[in-house]
Amino acid sequence: MEKALLPDGSPDRRNSEVRLVPAPENSLCFENAAGLVESAQSLLQQHPAELVVELGQVELIDSSGLRALLHIRKACEAAGVLFRLGSPTECVDRIIAMSKLNGFFGIPYRRRAARPVEPVAGLDLQAPGWKISEYRAVSDPSVISSLRERAARAAGEAGAEGETLCDIQIAVGEALTNAYKHGSPRKGISQIQMRCMTCPAAIVVEVQDEGAVFDPDDASTPEPHKMRDHGMGIYLMREAMDVVEFESDCPGNRVRMIKWLRDGG
User: Fold this and answer.
1) 244, 238, 147, 247: which is closest to 191 by C-alpha?
2) Closest CA to 194 of 182, 204, 181
């Protein structure tokens, strides 16, 4: 029996389902988001009935990953292909909830726990007992993942786990991505610095770049579903961390992020 053909002469596979898995499978971030979109566009040329982005192994996703998912969803709609997220992990659910994108991805709304409010004045960064790690690297896309992993390791050693650790990775990744994209005027030459300070009560992460002075408060709260190129990173940092402070002309820009540690995360 001959297979049905579409008008362009390709096999009619509209009754099929294709699955798309990020590479590597454990993350969907700035470093690999564009590759996922390209893979999706290639799969859509097969005219499947449904495209499933499999996220069962993804333990880290950032604003670039969210943009990629939205681009793929839009491309599926244009092609008349059903779109679905497969087995999203708790961390994926969490950043989607932060971004208020539940409805776009068909994920039930889950109320986020209220963040603890602590007096910043009570946190003495000059007091003894802090464990401090400092890193300096030439701006390169690979720096984002390597420094993010170091910050996550420091947070884990301090007792952060679960949603707390997930939030720290999200915020640090966004800060590093901004430092690379917007704070490195000479890619491959400009420096990115990161400082991690941990104690039983909190983790403090500072990321400094060599970018031009800017006012983070000039950026209005973004409309998450539009996923503009500017503003989402700062929005997610403020959603994920308990304190986010910016300093400019030091030289470049510095962001300090604080996460209170409670019961190991």
Assistant:
1) 147
2) 204
- In the structure, how many helices (H) and strands (E) does the chain have? 7, 10
Q: Which two tokens stand for residue 45?
A: 């040329």
Q: How does DSSP classify residue 94?
A: H
Exposure string for 172-198, b = 16+ CB within 10 A, e = fewer: bbbbbbbbbbbbbeeeeebbbbbbbbb
Q: How far is CA 137 from CA 12, 133, 173, 250, in A?
A: 50, 14, 15, 17
Q: What structural domains does the chain harbor?
A: 17-105 (3.30.750.24), 120-260 (3.30.565.10)
**CA atoms of 113 and 210, how far apart (whole Å):** 36
DSSP state of 216: G
pLDDT per position as a tens digit, 229-250: 556 888 899 999 999 999 887 8
Q: Which of 58, 65, 56 is nearest to 24 (CA)?
A: 58
Q: What stretch of H or E contains 37?
A: helix 33-44
Q: List pLDDT tens digits, range 90-117.
A: 889 889 888 888 888 887 766 655 555 5
What is the per-residue pLDDT for 246?
A: 92
